[in-house]
Specification:
Blueprint (H helix, E strand, L loop, with lengths): L1 E6 L5 E5 L4 H14 L4 E5 L5 E5 L3 E6 L12
Antiparallel strand pairs: 1-2, 1-5, 3-4
Length: 75
C-alpha cells in the first residue's frame, strides 16, 4: 500500500510503500493525533526503512490502495 504524508509549510511530501494494512496505518495516525502526547509518529516501509514524522507537522495523510505488480525489473 502506498502512503503519502503532506508536511505543513513544505512543498514536498513523504511517499513510501508499506506492507501494513490501511486500517493499521490509519489507526496509528489517528491515535497519535487524537492523544496529542506523541511528538512523533513512526512508519516502516516495505524495505525496512523507518520514517519519523512530527505530529504537529502533518498536513494530510493519503492512504493508497494495495500496490499492484509494477512493470519492469525487480531489484
Amino acid at each position: 500500500m502506498e502512503v503519502r504524508i503532506g508536511i505543513v509549510q513544505s512543498p514536498r511530501e513523504i511517499s513510501f510503500e508499506t506492507d501494513a494494512a490501511a486500517e493499521d496505518v490509519r489507526a496509528t495516525v489517528e491515535s497519535a493525533l487524537a492523544e496529542g502526547k506523541q511528538p512523533l509518529v513512526t512508519f516502516t516501509d516495505s524495505k525496512g526503512k523507518q520514517y519519523l514524522v512530527p505530529t504537529a507537522a502533518i498536513a494530510y495523510v493519503e492512504l493508497g490502495g494495495d500496490a499492484g505488480r509494477k512493470v519492469g525489473f525487480i531489484s
